[in-house]
Amino acid sequence: MSCGSCSTQENGLPNGCGNNGSCGIDSCNKLGVFDWLSNMTLPNHQQVFNIVEVRFKNGRKYFYKNTKKLSLSIGDVVAVEASPGHDIGVITLVGELVKIQLKKNNLAHESEEIKQIYRIASAKDIDIWQAARAKELEVQKKARLIILRLGLKMKLSDIEYQGDGSKATFFYTADERVDFRLLIRELASSFNIRIEMRQVGLRQEAARLGGVGSCGRELCCSTWLTDFRSVNTSAARYQQLSLNPQKLAGQCGKLKCCLNYELESYLEALKSFPRTDLMLKTEKGDAIFQKMDIFKGLIWYAYRDNPINWHTITTQQANEIIALNKAGKSNVSLEDFAFEVETDNTKFTDLVGQESLTRFDKPKNKKKKHRNKKFNKNAE
């Protein structure tokens, strides 16, 4: 469970992360929730909520009941109920905030899906857990070779061993339905463990593996985003983005989740804009929509007979002309409303310095002159 790029202890407890808990491998605070109620005391005669949140590999989280009333806190390594045997995880949230997380995941307090905590993990439990985690990379390589040999159309993305080492979950992606009955037999006989195959989507695969997006930050789905909402190309159209699949697609190959972040703000701003298919009727003819600036509230129109010259007007002026057209008036012109947009005259300074960037290049011309001098001396 320890991270290779920070000073996490061998038992998985954080000991001061050099990346402030934001590493992309298996960080201490991956998909973590800040407990802003930790410094508040409970009212009198109110007991601590007996359900806690436990995190496993790659941000996988479940809720477990503390039926034995153990003294638990965030960061404790516990042994929890599994099917079969037990699993090992780290507690990430306790107290009243767990109720909010249960409501967010549509789970009731008395749900049968919520299993129980056995005990705080002992040194032996942690040793078995770490030994099982150390096998995952080698087992994944061998399993991929078996999949290639069987000719199955599936991609094995990750393997997660159970805490007691008795079972392994194989996460895979596939475009079609895969018959992996023969694969399970070979995997079980090769590794002598129980096998569970679990198909995940492309977004879930990217969330488990992690990575860095085009923005330079770690993927939202692997750090804080927990719900995957559908993203449509209409979100890019509303935000006036070019429909370039290479720029709009994320690491998973699907449309980026961040296209939905500011979509509501754009839709609210577009309410004041007229429809783009409406033509403005003026004295000089019909004016056709060309483009818009949502942030500045500007629209560019051009006459049908003269599409080269664009005229800039505000959304309020465009709505006024449309209102006049509905009243049967067309004795207006775009020149009466149009104005020039101020250009940005920002002066950029040379931060590199006054010297040329090619100052380290070798002077090729000087070498030629020296060679010519030597040639003339030899001729004399």
Content-based structural category: alpha+beta
Which residues form runs of ≥5 with pLDDT under 50? 1-5, 18-27
Order of helices and strands: EEEEHEHHEEHEHHHHHEEEEHHH
Distance between the termini: 79 Å
Q: Sheet with the most strands? A: 5 strands, mixed, barrel
Radius of gyration: 32 Å
Mean pLDDT: 83
Overall shape? elongated
- Helical content stands at 25-40%
Strand line-up in the sheet with most strands: 1-2-5-3-4
Helices, by number, come to: 12
Q: How many β-strands, per DSSP?
A: 12
Strand content: 15-25%
Question: Which labels suit this protein?
Answer:
elongated, alpha+beta, single chain, 380 residues, 4-stranded antiparallel beta sheet, disordered N terminus, 5-stranded mixed barrel, 12 helices
